[in-house]
Design a protein that fits this description.
Chain lengths: 208, 299
């Protein structure tokens, strides 16, 4: 268990809702939920959630910290925003799910091999290198995320797709060597580093 | 028509050799006829899209958009930001509004930007290209440039998620927006206003991480278009376009379907209708060829 997880669990032991409100994106809207379940019925991947959104909200209030954070439910969010526009109470459901997912990642409690968590991290790391996404390298890193053997298998299975995209001029092998980047990458890195420091301070402050 | 100018945020996927480079090519052809000048935001960066949240967290992610807005305000002062990509538009507008309502986040972003010598005024409107077409040009305006009406074509307007929610287009409903149908009608084609899967999610970025779950939804989107007798699907979103077009072989293999449904951008429809060539309308960027549009372009 990470140090942050231990510290946060100790500080907010009796009140997971307060913990969510303190550190999770748009977490202060959770208490608005009235358990109508429209979010669950509106989610395109609804049937794949072990705990649909309204259940997650009730579990937060019930202090089921581990069950929520270790769940892979929020990683089912496709960011379609259907729940947000239909919620009669203005709960910022999509953002809360993103926030819970990110918080679980930060605490190191995401179920091992959760594919959307992996892709999400690969996407972020990819864009952080040069300020823009390198689609070819992103695609390859996703194929190879579970090791070399699986990577070759994935690459072979998707060979036709890759060839089609290249033929259509929508994938370029040149991206592997050079690729698109921003010019002021040094400035960009400084900016994001600072933002990351401020973000880190929010969590450190909440754990004290 | 009066010349219009915007600060343009093209986004990663529209770059040369990237998945929606055909969107950019056809947008440029369309804007050329409409006398719209798109001034690219110099040195713009990725917005984090809808999947970056798991890596970066709230402030780093919002700061990505803060840098773009700040660069736009510095170099393209007084011009509204226009994005063609749904995720770019959503992320940038979301950041702008979050900063308006949350001073802590705004101050944090400002502090971060200062490290790179930038500063955010956060006073710039962030719009989607379809808003420009609908609100600044108007349906009649779109219509007036048509040289080759897309007569006889039936096109299912697939709006998808992020051009529709959470912000959407003013005056349109989230459940059955009609603007894309009206745009399709404006260029002389038949629309499908009752297309059931118009605002159905394609899986978004989860097409990469959860391909089976996503492809099940994509199958429904394509099937419904066939049910209505549509010749093709048109969309305003790069990820919708890619997801619905490029996995058709995989879906056919898995489900025994025989999908061969072209998926194009509204900008390609308009560009063809305005008399631009197949190449200028980026029809060579299709994975599933849009033969009927090609025929029309070559007439």
């Amino acid at each position: 268990m990470s140090d942050l997880n231990t510290a946060m669990a100790a500080k907010y032991r009796a009140n997971f809702l307060k913990e969510v409100e303190a550190v999770v994106e748009e977490g202060e809207t959770v208490k608005m939920c009235m358990q109508c379940g429209v979010c669950a019925g509106s989610c395109p991947l609804g049937k794949h959630w072990a705990h649909p959104p309204q259940e997650i909200f009730m579990m937060i209030r019930a202090g089921k910290r581990d069950e929520v954070l270790k769940s892979d439910s929020m990683w089912m969010c496709t960011s379609c925003y259907n729940c947000i526009v239909r919620c009669p109470r203005g709960v910022q459901i999509t953002h809360v799910m993103h926030g819970l997912a990110y918080y679980a990642k930060r605490l190191g409690v995401v179920p091992e091999g959760q594919p959307t968590q992996q892709v999400s991290q690969l996407f972020w790391d990819n864009l952080m290198k040069g300020g823009r996404v390198n689609e070819l390298k992103l695609g390859l890193s996703i194929y190879f995320k579970d090791g070399f053997g699986d990577g070759i298998k994935n690459a072979m299975a998707n060979q036709k797709l890759g060839m089609n995209m290249m033929k259509a001029g929508r994938m370029s092998p040149m991206e592997f060597l050079s690729g698109h980047t921003i010019k002021d990458n040094a400035g960009f890195q400084k900016i994001i580093k600072k933002a990351q420091e401020i973000e880190d301070a929010k969590f450190d402050g909440a754990a004290k | 028509m009066a010349k219009k100018e915007y600060s343009f945020y093209p986004g990663c996927s529209s770059q040369k050799g990237a998945t929606s480079s055909n969107y950019l090519t056809s947008t440029q052809s369309m804007c050329d006829v409409l006398d719209i000048t798109l001034n690219e935001i110099p040195d713009w960066n990725c917005c984090g899209a809808s999947i970056g949240y798991g890596g970066g967290g709230e402030l780093p992610r919002l700061t990505l958009s803060a840098r773009n807005i700040a660069l736009s305000e510095q170099h393209n002062a007084g011009q509204e930001i226009v994005a063609t990509c749904a995720a770019c538009w959503l992320a940038t507008r979301e950041a702008k509004e979050r900063f308006e309502h949350n001073k802590t986040l705004f101050d944090g972003a400002q502090q971060a930007l200062a490290e790179g010598g930038l500063s955010l005024k956060n006073q710039t409107a962030v719009r989607h290209m379809v808003e420009v077409l609908i609100e600044d040009i108007g349906y009649e305006g779109i219509k007036s440039g048509v040289k080759k009406p897309l007569e006889g074509l039936k096109i299912a307007g697939y709006v998808g998620c992020q051009t529709n929610r959470p912000f959407g287009i003013v005056g349109e409903s989230y459940e059955n927006p009609l603007y894309l149908d009206k745009m399709i009608e404006s260029v002389g084609a038949d629309s499908v206003p009752t297309y059931e899967k118009k605002v159905q999610c394609c899986g978004g970025a989860l097409a990469m991480s959860e391909p089976e779950k996503s492809q099940e939804m994509i199958k429904g989107i394509i099937e419904a278009a066939y049910d209505h007798g549509a010749d093709m699907i048109a969309t305003p979103c790069p990820l919708c376009q890619a997801n619905v077009e490029i996995y058709q072989n995989d879906i056919n293999a898995k489900y025994g379907t025989k999908f061969d449904m072209p998926v194009v951008y509204y900008s390609q429809l308009i560009s063809i209708a305005y008399g631009k060539s197949a190449k200028e309308s980026a029809l060579d960027g299709q994975v599933v060829p849009a033969k009927k549009l090609e025929e029309l372009a070559n007439k």
